[in-house]
Design brief:
The structure is a single chain. By secondary structure, the protein is an alpha+beta fold. The chain has 3 domains: about 80 residues, Sandwich (Immunoglobulin-like); about 180 residues, no CATH class; about 350 residues, no CATH class. It is about 25% helix and about 20% strand. The chain has 18 helices and 27 strands. The strands form 7 sheets. Strands 11-10-14-15-17-16-18-19-22-23 form a 10-stranded mixed β-sheet, with helices on both faces. A 5-stranded mixed β-sheet has the order 2-9-8-4-5, with no helix packed on it. A hairpin with a 2-residue loop joins strand 4 and strand 5. Helix 3 packs across helix 4, helix 11 runs parallel beside helix 18 and helix 14 packs across helix 15. The longest helix has 19 residues. The protein starts with about 25 loop residues before the first strand and ends in a 33-residue tail after the last strand.
């Protein structure tokens, strides 16, 4: 991410006097200047033609000129260290030309924009599992810090990874790798990987890249590893339930052969694994800080690809939309648009349905009727999704090792730590008088099973009984007779802040490749339903007028190489020096022939537009189920938390309801039923990008410490 910012000096001259000196340009390239962490930043100084001399650069009263080296014609670059916490002023002068840049520095331990750190917090440095048998120091202090370390690993000739314990002589069983960068010549280099490990923002991070220290010597932002292709992968991990109160102990290896053999570098953090941290805001902040560290150590990447499935897809979409510039493209699978809307709506409604179908003395429904009411293709998904609602229950899912005495209990410890997605995101949603997080979830006016009734799959009496008895869930996820009324402040901020993905922020400028998998036929249920891909598309279309920057490949045994396609796509964008807007560049450089497709079981590719419904061959092979909220009439975008209400209208029912039955509907819904033709209550676009929840006051949307 190259942050184009900075200022210039010069007094502008006086009327009739000499013209002002040409302006210099100072910018931070490791992060935006308002969001620098860890007392240092990689700074670029651009000197216009006609201005000569050696730059003098001052950080407040300290001369930091020696940090700068010439990086090209008219360009100097340097890693400036020694920044104080808070505001810093950087000044540059070459001849008579000057520039000034204001920088705000935050601790490397965070926070920066995500609000107060969550407490308690389990340190896991001693159990971190990605060091090939080594262990980390610490933890040091309440922020779970460790000393930064660098290890070297090599790919042995048997195909495994081994630690290089004596980096003075090449190992006898070391493999080599031929890097093909699409150039006429290929390069063969030792398969040696530099693995850096440390702590940032209380998470454990690692970066990996090919580096031969015997040939390259020391590397840095102005002296890169010769084997690095200049491109960066940022893998993001899945999960959610139990993803709070912990540093996290592992993630997938960064020494991925597909990446390394093409010269890519990779970086991630334990707080970018949703199983450790189910909070996209904290994840985005961690991406920004971790990528900043990578750039300061190794230089600015040509582009950065975010990639992951399930919880990794959440992060890919939301970081791209809410904090543009961190990712240039994303490769995702097991897609959801976000946690707050589509996913939590589904698990919340499924818990209600599961309770209703299993209540003593209730009506008996066939499996076919249950599927019609839920929208799922497999009845087993109701119980499965009901179990996944555990992420909304304050007592169900704590990380391993969490102290029992600290856990919430409604009677014995009402002030204890609550294990819910909402409480983990309390810095956005705010608190009630008890200190519990406000909740952006609501089912007032929702007519469960409406489509099933209109399709003739259930009777009027079943429809009435369902809606009369399904009720709601209280703040402790306990069943209650009344429907659940969402907290308006939390709903508003969920939309404003991008906790509900909007699609019109940075996603408009992001290349999106989706590897669409298929789990709708899982007999015992699966949370990763196909329909969520189309919720993403609906939001992109509503925000931008199109979804031309989103390509779906799959389901089926996908035969295309998504990384190569994304590289071709992004290199076209990077190489485009025209004055087209970034969104137009992204669409115009989509590789020729790259279009939606699925594959049959025989590996035959079927190219056709991917749609939620319809008679296409791909939909015949891989039909999409829906969700309880969509069966109730909700929009495909699946982004209405709390619907606006309207009076009961007989025209909404294809079945004939007699006067008594219509009156019963009015009794069940005394305030009216959902009017899905209107936006949701408080539904609105993003308030902006790079929003803060403190301590940064720039673009600050909310401060939970000062409600």
């Amino acid at each position: 991410m190259a942050a184009a910012c900075g200022g210039d000096g010069g007094d502008g001259g006086s009327p009739g006097g000499p013209p002002p000196a040409p302006a210099l340009k100072l910018s931070t390239v490791s992060s935006l200047p308002d969001y620098v962490t860890g007392d240092d930043a990689l700074v670029r100084l651009e000197v216009p033609a006609g201005v000569s001399g050696t730059p003098v650069v001052m950080l407040e009263k300290s001369d930091v000129s020696r940090a700068f080296t010439q990086a090209g014609d008219g360009t100097w670059q340097g890693l400036v260290r020694g920044m104080a916490l808070g505001k810093n002023t950087l000044r540059a002068q070459v001849g008579e030309s000057t520039a000034t840049l204001e920088i705000t520095n935050y601790p490397i331990t965070g926070p920066m924009i995500s609000g107060p750190h969550q407490k308690p917090f389990l340190c896991t440095t001693t159990s971190f599992g990605r060091l090939g048998g080594g262990t980390l120091d610490g933890p040091f202090g309440e922020n779970c810090s460790t000393n930064t370390r660098v290890d070297y690993f090599y790919r042995n000739k048997s195909g495994g990874n081994s630690r290089w314990n004596t980096p003075t002589v090449y190992p006898a069983d070391m493999a080599t790798i031929t890097i093909d960068e699409g150039k006429p010549t290929e390069r063969t280099v030792p398969y040696l990987v530099r693995l850096e490990t440390g702590t940032i923002n209380r998470g454990i991070y690692q970066s990996a890249m090919l580096h031969d220290p015997l040939s390259d010597g020391e590397i840095g932002p102005n002296k890169r590893s010769k084997a690095w292709n200049g491109k960066l992968m940022y893998p993001l991990g899945g999960g959610c339930q139990g993803g709070w109160y912990t540093q996290g102990a592992t993630f997938g290896t960064l020494i991925v052969d597909e990446w390394m053999k093409q010269g890519y570098a990779a970086v991630t953090s334990t707080l970018n694994i949703f199983g450790s941290n189910c909070n996209d805001l904290l994840s985005s902040e961690t991406v920004a800080m971790t990528k900043e560290r990578f750039i300061e150590a190794y230089g600015v990447p040509v582009y950065t690809i975010g990639t992951g499935g399930s919880g990794g897809a959440y992060q890919s979409f939301q970081t791209s939309d809410n904090y543009p510039g961190l990712f240039d493209g994303i490769i995702v699978n097991m897609v959801f648009p976000d946690v707050t809307s589509a996913t939590l709506f589904k698990v919340f409604d499924s818990r209600l349905l599961n309770n209703y179908f299993n209540r003593a003395g209730g009506l008996a429904y066939t499996d076919e009727k249950k599927k019609a009411i839920s929208g799922y293709l497999q009845v087993g998904n109701i119980a499965n999704m009901s179990g996944s609602a555990g992420r909304l229950d304050p007592v169900v899912s704590f990380p391993a090792g969490f102290q029992e005495s600290l856990k919430y209990h409604p009677v014995n410890n009402p002030g204890g730590s609550r294990a819910t997605v909402y409480d983990h995101t309390v810095n956005v949603y705010g608190k009630d008088s008890r200190g519990f997080a406000l909740r952006p979830i609501d089912n007032v006016g929702v007519q469960y099973g409406l489509k099933a009734l209109n399709d003739g799959a259930i009777t009027v009496d079943e429809f009435l009984d369902l809606n009369a008895n399904i009720g709601g869930l209280d703040v402790d996820l306990k069943p209650m007779a009344a429907r659940t009324a969402g907290d308006i402040d939390a709903i508003r901020r969920a939309y404003q802040s991008g906790r509900i993905t909007h699609g019109g922020g940075g996603l408009a400028s992001t290349a999106i490749l989706e590897n669409r998998d298929y789990f709708d036929n899982a007999v015992n249920g699966d949370i990763h339903n196909k329909i969520h891909s189309y919720s993403v598309r609906e939001r992109l279309k509503a925000a931008n007028g199109h979804f031309d920057n989103h390509v779906m490949l799959g389901p089926g045994p996908v035969g295309d190489n998504l990384l190569q396609l994304m590289d071709q796509w992004l290199m076209g964008v990077v190489s485009d020096t025209s004055d087209q807007s970034r969104p137009r560049k992204v669409v115009s450089h989509k590789p020729a022939g790259l279009a939606d497709a699925c594959w049959d079981s025989g590996g035959n590719k079927i190219v056709e537009p991917s749609t939620a419904y319809g008679e296409g061959r791909c939909n015949q092979l891989y039909p999409a189920g829906t969700t309880p909220r969509l069966v109730a009439g909700g929009p495909l975008a699946d982004n209405i938390v709390k619907c606006q209400l309207k009076a009961v209208d007989p025209a909404d029912y294809k079945a004939t309801l007699n006067a008594g039955q219509l009156e019963r509907v009015r009794q069940i819904f005394p305030g009216g039923v959902c009017d899905w033709s209107k936006p949701g209550v408080e539904q609105q676009p993003l308030k902006g990008t790079w929003l803060s929840f403190g301590p940064s006051t720039k673009n600050q949307l909310f401060d939970v410490t000062r409600p």
